[in-house]
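Appendix C reproduces, verbatim, an entry submitted by the partner laboratory led by Prof. M.T., so that reviewers can inspect both the input and the predicted structure.
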Amino acid sequence: MDDEHHREGLAPRRSRRIYLLPNAFTTASLFCGFYAIVQAMNGRFEAAAIAIFLAMVLDSLDGRVARMTNTQSAFGEQYDSLSDMVSFGAAPALIIYEWSLRGLGKWGWLAAFIYVAGAALRLARFNTNLGVVDKRYFQGLPSPAAAALIAGLVWIATDLRQTRWISATGEDLMWPSFILTVYAGITMVSNVPFYSFKDINLKKSVPFAFVIGMVLLFVLVSSDPPLVLFSLFLLYGMSGYVLWFWHWRQGKPLPWQAGAAASAAGGAASADEQDDD
């Protein structure tokens, strides 16, 4: 009975079974992260950056596939976290270090470590906050978006150099790389709220204008993937601070603070009812 009250407010217990379909997507995401590391070690930074974005797509699919097929499991959750640590933690840090930060000496690998540590702490906090934090918002920058900032910088700079728009190499951009890497690492473990888009119901009907907007978005991304994707994720990476400032000006609590207060109030009410019984 005490265990039931201890679990109250947390996410429902997952099955301990191992399912093939969602874990196949997770394995593919893990492969992309490992592939990105190998390509960065061989100096093929554009391929490494693209692999990180492919890992993001696959990572976004495994959870949705699991929910659609009712194959969620505790194994899948843990496997997904370990995969994310490789694809969105270790891989981006190694890519940016090999591409740009190596020239900074100890400051370069310290910046890369801040990013890796931030990703690990971010994933650990996310797992412990399941069922507590408002699902509409992330507490801190999600690790895939942080990885997109790092990989996006490498991709856009490499692409612009190949198309002769710029002549700067990774070593020339080591200080912007340093700032962005530290920013992403710290923002992952911050209390800044980022919209999660999880409250969007794909099963509901939408206006025709929404469909046109999606088509235009795909056209925009396909016109120049490095530039558009990096710009979008850069805006998203700053949006949390805008949202945090708005909450602060309005005097409103952050989403997880309100959720924690409601959970505590619910726990107190349950204790009172138990005492009454």
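Residues 267 and 273 are 10 Å apart (CA to CA). Additional entries are available on request from the coordinating office.
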